[in-house]
Amino acid sequence: PTANIGVVGLAVMGSNLARNLASREGNVVAVTNRTDAKVDRLIEDHPEAGFVPSYSIADFAASLTTPRTAIIMVKAGRATDAVIDELCEVFEPGDIIVDGGNALFTDTIRREAAVRAKGINFVGCGISGGEEGALRGPSLMPGGSAEAWQTLGPILESIAAVAQGEPCVTHVGTDGAGHFVKMVHNGIEYADMQLIAESYDLLRRVLGQTPEQAAETFAEWNRGDLESYLIEITAEVLRHVDADTGQPLVDVVLDAAGAKGTGSWTVQTALDLGVPVSGIAEAVFARSLSSQADVRAASRDLPGPASAPAVDDPAGFVEDVRLALYASKVLAYAQGFDEITAGAKTYGWQIDRGEVARIWRAGCIIRARFLDRITEAYRDQPELVTLLTAPVFVEVLEAAQQAWRRVVSVAVAAGVPVPGFSAALAHYDALRSERLPAALIQAQRDFFGAHTYRRTDREGTFHTLWSGDRSEIAAEA
Ligand code: 2AM
């Protein structure tokens, strides 16, 4: 055996990850794939990598030094289970199987338990950054045991993206913690993209900016607090002209957004955990709505406002939109971190949220200057209840909240949908409220279903005899 790390599954992501591994000092990389041709192709195209090829799982296992460490890069779902089963046949106790696919964290929890029962380590590892990230340095979110991290950690540190001298990888937590955090990362990505899209829509529909002018606005924003990969590529996309028609590309792309499901997982999981991630949910729903061609066609002639309100100070409005975007983004990230907090509690993970923000600073789609502030906020206050009250974000919200309200008001008056901005603002105002109308909802529930309520002034659980004399009785908790 000569290889210290192996990759099973040599489609684009797997090949790129294998090449990344091979390019780092000290790694010798074993590779295999169900279809032999992909192995041959990789070896042929990249002789410099010094790969150790195998054409069976048994030979692959034999080519690895112990503890054997293999990263599975196959299609999430049944293929992953099939490859895990094959590896378990030939691996020995103490060896390490890593799933680098986009697995649902509950699958990872199930697989980890099954593989651990055989004495083999199983690590679900979220990998973000797409094909380019896999090749040049992704953000890596491994779960699994501390024992597996001992061996795997240095290997993953060698290939991860680097932010301010630190590799974008940490041992997130046990079993499915890594895939859970990767899922939330993707949910936040949906929210971030939706908020940028709403900003763009306002610039065009309220101010009448051309895509080129909007590109300038985003490029300008990218020089300040909002500096991020997504803002940067937004400017590039908006500037791009379609070769066929000479039109801005954004005007010829069909306005129906696709999704691969990880955003939905984030929201479904949040519903199960009872965590309001309305910013992420609105982003997922906005994509669904965009793809409802029949409902949109049927609704096109519904009445809207007669005229859009005139904006007397266009530059002021642009700055308002920037602040609304920033504030909404703070809310969306706070919601994502709330979900991580709740997930950690429910599944028994010790997740250092500052570390999570730290490893998202490079390599992944949501990389941004902003994540430095989240990292620092959690470093200063590791037990922070909500990101919103970190001094750095209080300052942002203070500076932005009036502008945020103006933007939502103008959008509503103009009939331009801003589900992300307005959901974030509603969340913010609900959290600020001393009293919520939840009191009325509890009383209604008690009325029709005897669901009982608690009181602000006394301990205990109570029920009003709504269909009797309407006196109050103590109820069983
Ligand atoms: P293939 O090249 O033989 O199709 C992405 O599709 C990767 O997952 C490919 O490397 C593919 O192998 C692999 N894959 C898909 N289903 C698989 C399975 N059931 N067993 C092993 N590998 C599989």
UniProtKB/TrEMBL annotation:
The active site is at K182, E189. Its EC number is 1.1.1.44. Substrate binds at N102, S128, G129, G130, H185, N186, Y190, K260, R287, R445, H451. InterPro entries: 6-PGluconate_DH-like_C_sf (IPR008927), 6PGD_dom2 (IPR013328), 6PGDH_C (IPR006114), 6PGDH_Gnd/GntZ (IPR006113), 6PGDH_NADP-bd (IPR006115), NAD(P)-bd_dom_sf (IPR036291), Pgluconate_DH (IPR006183). NADP(+) binds at G9, L10, A11, V12, M13, G14, N33, R34, T35, V74, K75, A76, N102. The keyword ATP-binding does not apply. Homodimer. It catalyses: 6-phospho-D-gluconate + NADP(+) = D-ribulose 5-phosphate + CO2 + NADPH. Pfam families: 6PGD, NAD_binding_2. This is 6-phosphogluconate dehydrogenase, decarboxylating.
